[in-house]
Design brief:
This protein has 6 helices and 10 strands; from the N terminus they run αβαβββββααααββββ. It is α+β, with helices and mostly antiparallel strands and about 290 residues long.
Length: about 290
């Protein structure tokens, strides 16, 4: 692995794209609403899928026997074994071109855009960039383009990352809300996205193998909580957003969500219980 240059890595390991027909089912959308503590009866067929809920259309369908050792099912595409057992979400960007109606059949095109090797203090790291395109017709331009970057990392020694709590500074913004994610919320989100990554579901694995103090909140879940808080409070229509995942958030630990208006854009942020910035999202909006 260390001898491979980036060009060799990309040419040797990037698999074929995944093409799937997906159904934006009303039952899945209602379950997302229930997970977010919204009224599922307000979700009706033919209405636009709320922007930010597209994760229900992007899940991988990896056979159980082909899962990574950490339980992660893949990124909507087949992921080659690069000898790096840990995986964390680094960033994502989403561009909404048109609405996806609830009940519609969509064509999903998912592929690995690039695999880039880097060297860190902890050893080699690979940045995997995945792109998903959703089309309402297989010949039409994409209705949605989502690009995700994941960090593939070497194993840890399993030492706990838990540190003593401190008194955090006060976080302020135009809109502020604190939520405490629990095991049920992590389970619901993981089940809806068919994500069996053990750091979200297996507390013993998260602590003893990857060295986290508790279950890790899914990066996609923290993004969803922020964008849906913004959507409900402002009524704005997302045009695009870019999210950076800077630090883990943990089950049972308060998350402070902050919305700020900065000129023509919005900034959405999530802070952990020590007021460490964990998620930073830049949002653009428009009216359809």
């Amino acid at each position: 692995m260390n001898q491979l240059n980036e060009e060799h890595l990309a040419l040797a390991t990037i698999p074929e794209a995944t093409l799937r027909k997906e159904i934006c089912s009303i039952s899945a959308a209602r379950r997302v609403a229930a997970m977010l503590d919204l009224n599922p009866d307000e979700i009706v067929e033919g209405a636009p899928l709320p922007r930010g809920w597209q994760f229900i259309l992007l899940g991988a369908d990896t056979k159980r026997s082909l899962l990574r050792a950490d339980g992660f099912p893949g990124l909507g595409v087949s992921m080659p074994d690069l000898g790096l057992p840990r995986l964390m979400l680094g960033s994502r960007s989403v561009a909404y071109k048109e609405d996806i109606p609830i009940g519609a059949s969509v064509s999903r095109h998912s592929f690995i855009q690039s695999l880039k090797q880097k060297s860190t203090k902890s050893g080699p790291m690979v940045v995997a960039t995945i792109q998903h395109e959703l089309r309402l017709d297989s010949e039409a331009p994409p209705a949605l383009i989502e690009t995700q970057t994941y960090l593939l990392l070497p194993a840890t020694k399993g030492a706990s990352l838990l540190t003593e709590a401190s008194i955090p500074p006060i976080v302020t913004g135009d809109l502020v809300k604190t939520v405490v994610p629990n095991e049920t919320l992590l389970f619901h989100y993981s089940a809806l996205g068919f994500n069996s990554h053990k750091i979200h579901l297996d507390r013993t694995y998260a602590r003893n193998v990857e060295g986290f103090p508790d279950l890790v909140v899914n990066g996609g879940l923290s993004t969803l909580l922020l964008t849906d808080f913004f959507r409900q409070k402002t009524g704005a229509t997302l045009s695009s957003f870019k999210a950076r995942h800077l630090a883990p958030l943990y089950c049972g630990s308060p998350i402070t969500m902050v919305v700020k208006k900065i000129e023509s854009k919005w900034q959405l942020q999530a802070y952990d219980n020590r007021s460490t910035l964990a998620v930073d999202i830049e949002v653009e909006t428009h009216e359809l």
